[in-house]
Amino acid sequence: MLDRIRKSFASAKACPHGGKVRELEQRLGVMPLDFSANINPLGSPPLEGVILEELKCIGHYPDNNYAELKAAAAGFVGAAPENIVPGNGSSELIRLFAETALDDGDQALIPHPTFGEYENQCLLMGGRPKKVPLVQGRPALRDSDWKEAKALFICNPNNPTGDLLSKGEALSLARRCEREEVFLLLDEAFIELSSPEDSLAEYAPEMEYLFVMRSLTKSFAVPGLRLGFGVTNAALAQVMNLARTPWSIGSLAAAAGAYLLGQKEHLERSRGLIREELAWLSQSLRDLGLEPHQSHVNFILVDIGRSGMGSDQLEARLASQGVLVRDCQSFGLGKGCIRVAVRGREENQILIKALESALQCKD
Ligand SMILES: Cc1ncc(COP(=O)(O)O)c(C=O)c1O
What we know:
Layout: H1 7-10, H2 21-28, E1 33-34, H3 48-55, H4 67-77, E2 84-87, H5 89-101, E3 107-112, H6 117-124, E4 128-135, E5 138-139, H7 143-148, E6 149-155, H8 167-180, E7 183-187, E8 210-215, H9 216-219, E9 228-231, H10 234-243, H11 251-260, H12 264-287, E10 291-292, E11 299-303, H13 311-320, E12 323-324, E13 326-327, E14 337-341, H14 345-360
Parallel strand pairs: 1-12, 3-4, 3-6, 6-7, 7-8
Antiparallel strand pairs: 2-9, 4-5, 8-9, 10-11, 11-14, 13-14
Helix pairs in contact: 3-11, 4-11, 5-6, 12-14
Bound molecules: pyridoxal-5'-phosphate.
């Protein structure tokens, strides 16, 4: 039977992610402290009221046009509702973008290291991913790379490195994509927790090949809600909205999203906290003899090479103390790096203590 399914699905592989809190909770019998998923450390604005209100309508299908959600997303980024493509998490939009841009055998340029779903979804859609090295956080694209490419995936700020392209840098990449007729997925899942002024969302309605993507998961600390949206020109948005699975966003998520996108002040406070804690945590990691990569967002890639320990071993030692970090082997970084989220001060102190004890342990 498997020889008769779509070829690209027959070779589907697992794409590892962080946030395995429930798994570890079952093992330890206590809720671990999660530094492996990069969620807003301030948490989410209260959602009970909106959700309970919407629950009254749970007997009806959601509006598949998602008019209210689109209006809120459009207002949030300064676009029009016809420029918005809502998604069941931005993960659904990565798939939808790959489905839209790639035919079998089409090449997609993907920087290395970056979020694993770009390669995964590209392969599932029958595309041919081509890795592009990051040099000082910038994709080192050669003229020859553009010739065969159909799509380019850029994560800004980049997961897992925390590098941030300025608006000027991102715009010059987007303009090159327009000239080369290469679709650009600009994943701004983390930009609200970093530097929203460097977003290209405002340019997306006027460009042909640019698809800017946002995730409410990270900005508003709602990974269980599953909500994201894309911003692009009206023609492409229409195609993607028609191709999207109908009703892919539940009505509770749609209502919560429309509310959350009005909470800009929450994001401002979050950025203040992240700036402060990023500086504290980076210094504390250096004090332990580790080498944190300079980050512009709410997570830090940490080179643990000098500890003499592998990332899997360090991850396991921290897990046994109830602290989850991200082993970066799945990003293709060998055993030399972990990634930690920036949380509140008390939690960051617990991380540093746990690291101190894990690094001292000699067995
Ligand atoms: C860079 C990046 N983009 C997109 C996603 C997907 O997020 P979601 O589907 O929850 O919106 C993630 C999740 O970790 C991510 O790190």
